[in-house]
Write a structure and sequence with these properties.
Layout (H helix, E strand, L loop, with lengths): L1 E2 L4 H11 L7 H4 L9 E3 L14 E15 L5 E7 L4 E2 L1 H6 L6 E14 H10 L1 H27 L2 H16 L13 H8 L3 H13 L3 E4 L2 E4 L2 H8 L4
Antiparallel strand pairs: 1-2, 2-6, 3-4, 3-5, 3-6, 7-8
């Protein structure tokens, strides 16, 4: 990683408008040590790893980060993706536990760090900030419950269709209508919870059925309505 040249005023503006820190007062924002700017991470770099001690929040200013757990067999299970405005490490920071997930850069990223002691003081003094964190925690718990249900009740085909739809809704499309997030087939398999070979086969079937278009890692959604039907999503 390298130090970014973004000045503290730019970072403060970002935190106050695009993140959970938007409820902080000017005086509280001034307490965040932003003099050293943010840090740039390149694809493949780790920010923190499961089982390590982390002492603060990591806020995504730019880029995409995958958040995952590693199973006993060494296989990764992707939990979610963090994008600009998202924070990482808040659960472990608040509870004092070791990190329960790992974070790896999949698109060059700019990350801002906020010390844990400062975050805890904001939780105690600012009710709106505390409520936003509680809402984030509840949303993550809801996503975890949905994932457990999907693994137990849905086929791999249904889960892959649902993943593709969620990726579109979360990251939108580029100028050529491809998903703005580029994932390897292994990374897709790690989200769906299946073997890479199964994802490759199903993507080929979706392509033959004119549901998607493939160009290397890039995926274009051609028939969102049918993918939603295949996924048996309720939204």
């Amino acid at each position: 990683m390298i130090r970014n040249s973004s000045d503290s005023n730019e970072l403060k503006e970002f935190l106050s408008t695009k993140t959970v820190f938007k409820h902080l007062s000017k005086e509280e924002l001034d307490l965040i040590p932003l003099e050293n700017g943010s840090e740039i991470f390149r694809r493949g770099e780790m920010i923190y790893e499961e089982g390590h001690r982390i002492n603060g929040f990591y806020c995504v200013v730019k880029g995409i980060i995958k958040i995952f757990k590693t199973g006993f067999d060494g296989k990764d299970q992707i939990i979610r993706f963090a994008k600009p405005g998202d924070i990482m490490g808040f659960r472990s920071t608040i509870t004092g536990e070791l990190a329960c997930t790992s974070t790896k850069i999949i698109e060059d990223s700019v990350i801002c760090y906020i010390p844990g002691d400062l975050v805890k003081s904001f939780v105690k003094s600012n009710g709106e900030f505390a409520m936003d964190l509680l809402e984030l925690a509840c949303n993550e718990l809801g996503e975890a419950n949905d994932y457990i249900t999907d693994i137990a009740q849905k086929t791999v085909r249904e889960r892959l269709a649902e993943v593709l739809i969620h990726l579109k809704w979360s990251f939108n499309l580029d100028n050529e209508n491809f998903l703005q997030i580029s994932l390897t087939r292994e990374e897709l398999a790690n989200i769906v919870g299946t073997a890479t070979e199964s994802v490759i086969r199903l993507l080929s079937e979706f392509k033959q059925d004119r549901l998607i278009e493939l160009h290397g890692r890039k995926i274009k959604i051609l028939d969102e309505t049918k993918l939603i039907k295949i996924s048996n999503m309720h939204y």
